[in-house]
Amino acid sequence: MIIDKILLSENLILQRVQELGQQITNDYCGQSFILICVLKGALVFVADLIRSMDAHPDLDFVQISSYGNKTESSGNIDFLRELTTNIKGQNILVVDDIIDSGLTLYHLNKYLLSKKPSSLRTCVLLSKPDRRKKHVEVDYVGFDIPDEFVVGYGLDFSEKYRGLRSIATLRMA
Ligand code: IMP
Ligand code: MG
Q: How many structural domains compose the chain?
C-alpha cells in the first residue's frame, strides 16, 4: 500500500489540536487530572496536545490488544500495558487517536469506571461516525472523517506511516 491523498494537512491538524488544548484547559478550570494515552496510535497526538494546554496533567499509558474483527467481545479487555497509576478519586481524560467501531473506548471506559475515578472524559483526534457499533460519549473530537482507512500523525498501517505529519488515505501500489 502507498499514500494516496492527504485528508488532513499538518497545519489543519495543529490548528485543531491547539483549539482542543485550549478547550480542555478551560474545561478543567485548574483542577488536576490524569491524561491516559492509548498506545500506540495516540502517541503523536498526545505529544502535541499536552503542549497546547495551559495545564499540567499527570500522564499514564495503556495499550490494548486489538478487537480486530470481533463484533461482540467477551466484555474483557486485554491489556498489553496496564495503568501504573491508582485513578480512584482522580479526574481522568482518556486520549485515543481514532474512534471507529467504538469497541476499544467502550470497554476501556467501562474498565476505568470500575476503578471509581471522580470524573472520566474522552478525547479523540478522529471519529468515523458511520462505523460505530457501540455508542460512546466522546467529549472532544478533532475531526469527523468518512469511512476510509487513514494513516499518519500516529496512525499506522501494519506499523508503518506513524511519523507522517499529515493524515492520508492509502491505495494499492
Ligand atoms: P475501535 O475499537 O473500532 O473504535 O478502533 C479503534 C482503534 O482501531 C484505533 O485506536 C486504531 O488503532 C484502529 N483504527 C481504526 N481505524 C483506523 C484507521 O483508519 N487507521 C489506523 N488505525 C485505525
Ligand atoms: Mg489505537
A: 1
